[in-house]
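Section 5: illustrative case.
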C-alpha cells in the first residue's frame, strides 16, 4: 500500500501570515499578472481568521474552513458534509507565538490538514 503524499512543516509566524503552497502551478502568460503561482495553499495567520483554511489561491477561493469536512462534486462545487470540530476549539490547539507542527496529507481529491496532531479539516470528492 502506498503512503499518502504528505507535507510536514513546522511553522511560526514571523510576519502577519504564512501560506504554504502545495499543488501550486506557475501562472501562464495569458493569466493576469498578480502572483507568480496559483493553487492550493494551507493558511496560517496571526489573527486566526485564516489559520486552518485550505484555499485555491486566485482560483476558486476557500475550499474548506477550519472545522469543515467538505465534498467537492464533479462540477467543482463545494458542499459541507460534516465537521472535524468547533472552529474556535480547534484554534485553541494552535499557539501562534510558538512553532506548530503543520501536516498536509493529499492524494487526489482527498486532503487533510492537521496542526499539532489535531485534524483541522478534510476535503474529498
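Designed sequence:
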Amino acid at each position: 500500500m502506498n503512503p499518502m503524499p504528505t507535507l510536514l512543516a513546522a511553522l511560526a509566524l514571523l510576519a502577519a501570515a504564512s501560506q504554504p503552497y502545495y499543488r501550486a502551478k506557475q501562472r501562464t502568460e495569458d493569466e493576469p499578472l498578480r502572483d507568480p503561482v496559483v493553487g492550493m495553499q494551507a493558511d496560517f495567520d496571526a489573527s486566526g481568521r485564516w489559520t486552518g483554511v485550505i484555499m485555491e489561491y486566485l482560483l476558486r477561493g476557500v475550499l474548506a474552513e477550519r472545522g469543515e469536512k467538505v465534498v467537492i462534486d464533479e462540477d467543482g462545487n463545494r458542499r459541507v458534509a460534516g465537521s472535524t470540530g468547533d472552529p474556535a476549539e480547534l484554534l485553541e490547539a494552535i499557539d501562534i507565538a510558538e512553532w506548530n507542527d503543520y501536516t498536509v496529507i493529499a492524494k487526489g481529491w482527498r486532503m487533510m490538514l492537521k496542526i499539532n496532531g489535531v485534524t483541522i479539516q478534510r476535503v474529498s470528492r
